[in-house]
Amino acid sequence: MQQEQAPTRSLPLAGATNFRDLGGYTGQGGRPVKWRRIFRSDHLAALTPEDQALLAQLGVARAVDFRGKAESAAYAYALPGIAYHPLAIEPTVVQRALDLQRTGRQLTAQDAVGLMQDTYRGFVHDNAPRFAELFKLLLASDTPTVFHCTAGKDRTGFAAALILLTLGVPRDVVMHDYLLTNTLYQRPPGMGSHAPEEVLAVLWRVQEEFLDAALHKVDTEFGGLQPYLVDVLGVDAAAQTELAGRYLQAAV
Questions:
Q1: In three state form, how does the secondary structure of 60-91 look?
Q2: N or C end of the chain: which has fewer CB within 10 A?
Q3: Per the confidence metrics, is the pTM higher than 0.85?
Q4: What is the mean pLDDT of residues 210-222?
Q5: How far apart are the C-alpha atoms of 25 and 249, rounded to whole Å?
Q6: Do 243 and 234 touch, CB atoms closer than 8 A?
Q7: Active site residue: 64, 149, 151, 213, which one?
Q8: Active site residue 80
Q9: Rounded-to-integer distance, Cα 136 and Cα 86, Å
Q10: Are 135 and 239 in contact (CB under 8 A)?
Q11: Cα separation of 130 and 163, whole Å?
């Protein structure tokens, strides 16, 4: 008997390069995350009619947009049959980079890594209400959902890490998923062309040090993932059981 092939993780869209499925990873109790329920992506404003047809075929009915107000206004979208949920997290790294440059300093790759780590630490506390809202949506219904920011790498990357960790996916596997952005995401031509290429190579990619900065803050300031989920995001034991029931395959 031929073994059934697993669905593809990355989906071939013309208008988004970083659209992918969180399914298939092994979570708590050895139960895999269900395929075709939760997707992560870069922004959806450039999707073609064919792309939109694929999303409809996948049953995607909710889009969660983590972009800041100016970002979402510049590249707005409305997709037929998909409910739009804006959970704005304003981008801070560009502003901080500009502030550094105004002091007369030439921004280095090392500066950029530090800025990105600070950004990720900010997700953990400053932006916790947005991630709490994402979990509320996932708990309200298991209708196929995509969440995204502009590049689908930082705000989206932290959100994906939280979801997978909550479902019991090991941290090294979560990191592997996070780093897939470097293989998939294609930076739009001309974006951020005023900075040196070595700096852009940091800002438009992901590094283990970025996600580690956020997870280290979760561990050291909140006592680990469990207290953080319960005390900060409002995802208590009952909610975690509900999430596992919705998004992990049933034990065989």
A1: CCEEEECCCHHHHHHCCCCCCCCEEEECCCCC
A2: N
A3: yes
A4: 98
A5: 11
A6: no
A7: 149
A8: no
A9: 14
A10: yes
A11: 13
The residue type at 167: L
What would the pLDDT profile of 52-74 be if each residue is shown by its tens digit?
Answer: 999 999 999 999 999 999 999 99
* Token pair listed for 73: 């206004």
> And the tokens for 18?
């970083």
- For the cut 60, the answer to whether the pLDDT of residue 122 exceeds it is yes
Q: Give the pLDDT mean for 198-214.
A: 94
Is the distance from CB of 64 to CB of 146 less than 8 angstroms? yes
C-beta separation of 75 from 45 below 8 A = yes
Average pLDDT in the chain: 93
Distance CA 187, CA 27 (A): 31
Q: Which residues of 8-23 are buried (b: 16+ CB within 10 A; e: fewer)?
A: eeebebebbbbbbbbb
> Between 165 and 97, whose confidence is greater?
165
CA 204/CA 154 separation, integer angstroms:
10
Whether 231 has a pLDDT exceeding 90, the answer reads: yes
Grouping H, G, I as helix, E, B as strand and the rest as coil, residue 202 is: helix
Residues 6+ apart with CB under 8 A from 6: 24, 35
pLDDT exceeds cutoff 60 at 2: no
How far is it, in rounded angstroms, from Cα 177 to Cα 171? 10
**Cα angle value 11/15/20 (rounded, 5°):** 25
d(CA 236, CA 33): 20
